[in-house]
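Lab notebook, entry 246. We have the chain sequence and a SMILES string for zinc ion, and the next step in the workflow is to get a structural model of the bound complex before anyone spends time on docking refinements. Request logged below.

Task: model protein plus zinc ion, output structure tokens.
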Amino acid sequence: MASGHEAHEAAPGQQSRTGPPLTRALDREAAQARRLLAAGEWRPAPADSEAAAAVLARLTAPLPARRGASAGTLARDRDRRLQRLLRTTLHHLDAGAVSPRAAALLAAVARAFLPWHATPNPPGAAAAPRYGVPSVPPTEAGEALLRELVPLFASLASASPPGTVPLTPPAEPWQVRYAGRFRRHGRPAAGVWTAETVGCPACGARTGPWTVTCDWSRLSLGCPCGVVTDGHGLAFSEVWLLLPDL
Ligand SMILES: [Zn+2]
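Result returned:
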């Protein structure tokens, strides 16, 4: 996976430009996953298959059948399907049950579908995560990705033959420098969000530039003062979705 040492400035609205979804990580992770599955080097464990099945259900969800619906309603249906895909993917990425290899793939899917973070339904609370995503997401480009991803997630979701021993190839660790704040979100109740900026446990610095190191089982933040922490409480998506598509 990507490793780089340039500092990336935090840019609220970094992805606010219109244009195709960010798929560099997805292209790479999907190609690797296809190759590993075809070679028998990845025999998904039950947790990976279950997550893949949930994502597959979103990838293959039919649009609602509506008679005489307005163009606006039909457009909302299309975007809502992609938004549900994003939310399901994020749920399984951050739940921590899947293997690092599957997490890398889910993270790449989440980045590609991030334009639907707030469309058609914006986050319901002021403290919910925001990514400065476009108000008009690239719907056709997103739908084109569905068709590409269905066979891959169908392979991951299909149960292994009885007696098969799961085999999960390791995920490649990556390291990126990031200048900016990371926000840890909580949902103490339905519709209620809290957000807190992460600071260095030693010096209290909150804007880095952080050296982010991740192998999709652990994510650590290195502060310029020299202290490295993995006790930040951040979910994978709370870091990954802020980073550039390397
Ligand atoms: Zn520090």
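Notes for the group: The two ends are 8 Å apart (CA to CA). Worth checking against the assay data. The longest helix spans residues 71-95.
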